[in-house]
Amino acid sequence: MKHIYQKGFDQVGFTFVLLHGTGSNEVDILPLADSFDQTFNVLSIRGNVNENGALRYFRRLKEGVYDEDDLHLRGEELLTFIIEASQTYAFDIDKVVLLGFSNGSNIAINMLLRDDNPFKYAMLLAPMYPLEPENLKEQPMLKVFLSMGKHDPIVSLDDSKHVIDLFEARKAQVVQSWTNSHEVSAQTIIDGRKWLNEIKNN
């Protein structure tokens, strides 16, 4: 998969895995990592699905309707790639923070809710996951930061609540941050930095 890897100087050894939104790419999303923590390693991955010229991580049948078979296939493919990249670039998979926006958050959810999920941390910005996964395995060690919009024109409040419920039903440790729309706001950055500092200091 096309990607960018940047070695950080965080002595603790955390790594952001950046997952962009629809229509963006692995370069566009790089400033987001700097906004949260400039010391982390960064692995930024390009979505390999092209929807009318817009890059995504999985196909959809129409707005808000996912191609479930493709989602699971692409999620497995992405998970395998990240694990292989951790070996290639020698970063600790236990200290990976999945950092996704919109479509990037949605493919991250697919990986996080798998039986073989190796990740402990995720920052999901403007997520939506209109599915009910069969796997109900509890993940009490999973820490998830969710940034959601109260007036998001793409993700309704019910859709946001569904994402919260998916993780809380699996006993994950969920922190919520609310903004206005389908965006990364100043409040998102402030709340996200606080969440990251707590992770780094524990």
TrEMBL record:
Residues 78-165 form the Phospholipase/carboxylesterase/thioesterase domain. It comes from the Bacteria. InterPro entries: AB_hydrolase_fold, PLipase/COase/thioEstase. GO terms for molecular function: hydrolase activity. SUPFAM superfamilies: alpha/beta-Hydrolases. Gene3D superfamilies: alpha/beta hydrolase (3.40.50.1820). Keywords: Hydrolase. Pfam families: Abhydrolase_2. The keyword Nucleotide-binding does not apply. This is Alpha/beta hydrolase.
